[in-house]
Structure formats: C-alpha cells, structure tokens
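User: Can you recover a sequence for this backbone? Please restate the input before giving your answer.

Assistant: Of course. Working from this structure:
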C-alpha cells in the first residue's frame, strides 16, 4: 500500500477482533516506530508490548474502572461524530483485555543531555507513534492511539516493573479491524497551508 493511502485511511479503529496478532507483526510495528526521527537522533524511546491475558486483564480492570465515570457522564451538546467517538473509546476501555495487543510507548526525559525538557521527550515518542499506526494500516492492522496509560499509571508501572525515570507517554491498541477502514476526516489543506508568509 502506498504510504499516503495508509495515512489517509488509518482511522482510529476502536472495534477490534480478538484474533491474536503474530509477535513478528507486533515487532515489525515497533521496528517501524523506531525508524522515526527524534531530536538529535537521541531515540530515547522504549516500548512494552502487552499480549499476556493476565497482564492485560489487570491493567484493563484499572483503566476501565478509572475511566468509567467519565464515559458515564458525557458532556451535553456533542454531535454525532463526537458521540460515536466517545462510545468507541468507552468500548475500547471496557474491552481492554480483549484487545489482542497494546503497545505502550515510553520515553526518557534525556534530551538535550545538558538540560532535558518534556517538550523534547514528547517530540521523541509521538513521531514514533504515528509511524507505528501508519505501518499497521499498511499491514491491514487496526490501531487506536490513546492516552489510556494516564488513567492507571501506578498500576501499569507496578504491573510492568517500569523504572521511575521512564515516562509512560502513549498506548496504542492493535488488532485486526472489526469495522471497515475509511478516510480520516481532516481539514482541507487550503485551510491550514500558507506559502512564504502567514
Ligand atoms: C495524542 C493522542 C491521544 C489520543 N487519545 C485517545 C484516547 O485516549 N482514546 C481514544 O479512543 N482515541 C484517542 N485518540 C484518537 C483520536 O481521538 C482520533 O485519532 C481522532 O478523533 C480522529 O479520528 P480518526 O483518527 O478516526 O480520523 C488519540 C489520538 C492522539 C493523537
């Protein structure tokens, strides 16, 4: 698949089949993630792939318990698209353990070495995450980029023995899609592109 087509169609896939994804494919996703650019090529990223049902069950319980109140009281005035998105996110959180694989993207705040900043840390992990979801689309795998790790950071850290200096930055759900891929809905280029001056 052409890389532009993969970018155009890698919608958040919040409904995933339970069929396992081969470890080799999950490793290939991390390979793709780690081909990304990073500040000064510092590469202060690391990834934890979760496929073990016990591990997913423990973390999933904590994530869905922490997020349930938010999903139970959605703000008024949402349009159909937003309502569908929240319903999808609630489904994904509630079915955390049934998602075949979660890839936790971690980073160290270590760039630049003399005065590390959070901005450089996040700018290390996010391009890697985007590489990962585009690569997954090209392999016929559905993904959802999430920040679910924020809901249960302590449980995730202790369950996975993650050192305290490592930051938990993103969590991507991976599996075969239960629904069709479709075009991402984004602003037209003309609304955001400026040539030579604002
Ligand atoms: C940094 C980041 C955090 C996100 N967090 C979540 C999340 O916690 N839960 C979720 O269901 N989707 C999450 N998403 C997915 C976005 O909601 C989704 O990409 C966006 O609504 C556009 O939809 P589309 O990708 O299907 O076109 C996140 C995306 C990004 C980039």
């Amino acid at each position: 698949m052409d890389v532009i087509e993969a970018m155009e169609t890698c919608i958040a896939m919040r409904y995933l089949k339970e069929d396992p994804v081969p470890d080799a494919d999950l490793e290939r996703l991390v390979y793709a993630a780690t081909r990304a650019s990073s500040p000064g090529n510092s590469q202060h990223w690391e990834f934890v792939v979760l496929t073990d049902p016990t591990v997913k069950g423990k973390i999933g319980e904590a994530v869905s318990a922490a997020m349930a109140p938010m999903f139970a009281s959605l703000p008024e005035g949402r349009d159909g698209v937003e309502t569908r998105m929240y319903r999808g996110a609630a489904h994904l959180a509630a079915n955390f353990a049934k998602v075949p694989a979660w890839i936790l993207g971690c980073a160290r705040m270590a760039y630049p070495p003399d005065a590390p900043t959070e901005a450089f840390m996040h700018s290390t992990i996010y391009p890697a995450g985007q590489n990962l979801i585009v690569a997954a689309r090209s392999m016929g795998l559905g993904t959802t980029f999430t920040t679910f790790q924020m809901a249960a950071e302590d449980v995730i850290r202790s369950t996975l023995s993650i050192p305290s200096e490592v930051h938990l930055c993103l969590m991507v759900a991976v599996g075969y899609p239960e629904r069709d891929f479709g075009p991402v809905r984004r602003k037209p280029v003309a609304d955001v592109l400026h040539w030579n001056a604002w």
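That completes the design. Residues 11-12, 14, 85, 89, 92, 144-148, 184-185 surround flavin mononucleotide (CB under 6 Å).
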